[in-house]
Amino acid sequence: MLPFLTRRLIVAALVALAVSGIAFGLMFVAGDPAVVLAGQGRAQDVEIIRQAYGLDRPIAVQFATWLGRALTGDFGTSIYFNLPVASIIGERLPVTLILGSTAFLVAMLVAVPLGILASLKPGGWLDRFALMLAVTGQAIPSFWLGLILIVVFGVWWGMVPISGTETWQGYILPVIVLSYYAMPALMRLTRAGMIEVLGADYIRTARAKGAGRQRILLIHALRNAVLPLVSLAAVQFGLMLSGSIVIESVFAINGLGRLAWESLLRSDMPVVQAIILILSLVYVTLTTAADLINAWLDPRLRSAS
Amino acid sequence: MTSLDLDSNVLQRRRLWRRVRRETGILIGGGMLAVLVLIALFAPWLAPHDPVAQDLTRRLLPPFWQAGTNPAHWLGTDHLGRDYLSRLIYGTRVSLGIGLGVTLCAGVIGTMLGLLAGYFGGRTDMLISFIITTRLSLPIVLVALAAVALGGASLQTLAIVLSLLLWDRFAVVVRSATQGLRNREYVQATRSFGASHLFLMLKSILPNLQNTLIVVATLEVANVILLEAALSFLGLGARPPTPSWGLMIAEGREQILFDPWLIALPGSALCLLILAVNLLGDGVRDALDATRS
């Protein structure tokens, strides 16, 4: 277990380092950051800014300083707000976390039972219904679904607020849209995994020993079918947090995604860098955790590779 | 090649064809996609008007199912008086063009990385696997948005950025498939004749990945089309007056209270296209799986 754990954590740390390099590098793709900061300023202003922000030092030194500060939670100052980036993000992060986790929970609670039920009778009406749900879910662009739901439930029927998250009702439509986006893949994987596992010898053995239907499904089958699901769930959760940028702009939700989008339009690169870094680190953490959970669930994985 | 091989090859192909005809998804998806491709190809002949010509005296004419419609614009006009049907027809070109173009470029990048990693293994594999993991860890929408914003929003920038970002699925699939093939007898036999690494990768292994690549590419086309629409919707893809469906949805959003059909039409077009591509992709995958087993 220990060598596996160490190797996995080293890879995760290296990926995190590479990702922070990319996030840092984005600032320089836009051109000389000192010129960007100076705006309409004169040539001397550019020089003053270059020295004030430490942009005259070697890039490697700048990166090390930036990374070192970021590790302690200091992401620099927003060019637009002239406030610490960390405090701006701290204000917006909870909204995205609530939206993402709720949608993730809803998606899992619908997709996993539906996938299990569909696997019991492949080709049955429930299986077809689940497949239809998955096929449409993959074909409908989520930002468009959001707009249509706003028109139908918000404007025509007036059942829910059409934007913002001041009340909990404001979360209903965004959660529906975001979870519907994540559901198809989760459902299909649960169904495929269960069908494969239910055909295995040990299930027949369990049945022959007289184990109850529920016990076979939930204890014998699900535990084995769940392995690939853990990895996919981690990936989907990460995608939902970072993908909520589109949903947030549709529903006018003041979360991390909307902040990133607005900051991009304002060329407020420190904020964009910090958000990309945070979302990537969350993703790395989630996938690493999924691998560790799988290694704990299935001892065979620990010795492999 | 012996006659036995030839026979089994022909048999397999015949069996595949039988599966294809039985697979309704391929028929429906393929049929829908064929129609959409024809629409894209013959857009200039099909569209009744110029898709970017404005006529401010004919702004926001309603479509045919609403009162006050104009027979010259049977799907209405947008806020600048441009014919909506013509814009929808030309939008097929944007979506399909970006979808196919980006998938092709990303496919070449991903296949190359996957071949190298799977064929050589060892350190090459470690390095490329590391690149793949890093790419997967990046929030794709956000990085694409940032790159497009920095490169100046346009369809070309968007296409380049997406090509450089969306090769991951190709790389992952090709890598593991190559690992399974590199030590096969026929590859070793070719190697013993003194074939170069490049020859083995491109002539011995790559042709056998054809089926896998077709399936991945189909699903990736759908992914690219959705991303283009989303980024154009956010204002960092196609620039006005390009008739991109995502951009049309963004423009129709201003009129969401009174004219929701402005959003409904391009969105439905998007759904149809994605549905067609997905049905085709799923069908092809099922047909190939069935012939293999």
* Poorly predicted ranges of chain A: none
The major pleated sheet of chain B works out as: none
Determine the strand fraction of chain A and express it as a percent band.
under 5%
Order of helices and strands of chain A: HHHHHHHHHHHHH
- Helix count of chain B equals 13
What is the ordering of alpha helices and beta strands of chain B? HHHHHHHHHHHHH
Q: State the helical fraction of chain B.
A: over 70%
What is the approximate shape of chain A? Answer: flat
Shape of chain B: elongated
Short description:
The complex is a heterodimer of chains A (305) and B (293). By secondary structure, chain A is mainly α. Chain A is built from 13 helices and no strands.
Could you characterize what this model shows?
- The complex is a heterodimer of chains A (305) and B (293).
- Chain A has 305 residues and is mainly alpha-helical.
- Chain A has helices at residues 2-29, 33-38, 43-52, 59-71, 85-120, 125-139, 142-156, 172-198, 201-208, 213-250, 256-265, 269-297, 299-303.
- Chain B has 293 residues and is an all-alpha fold.
- Classes of the chains: A mainly alpha (305), B mainly alpha (293).
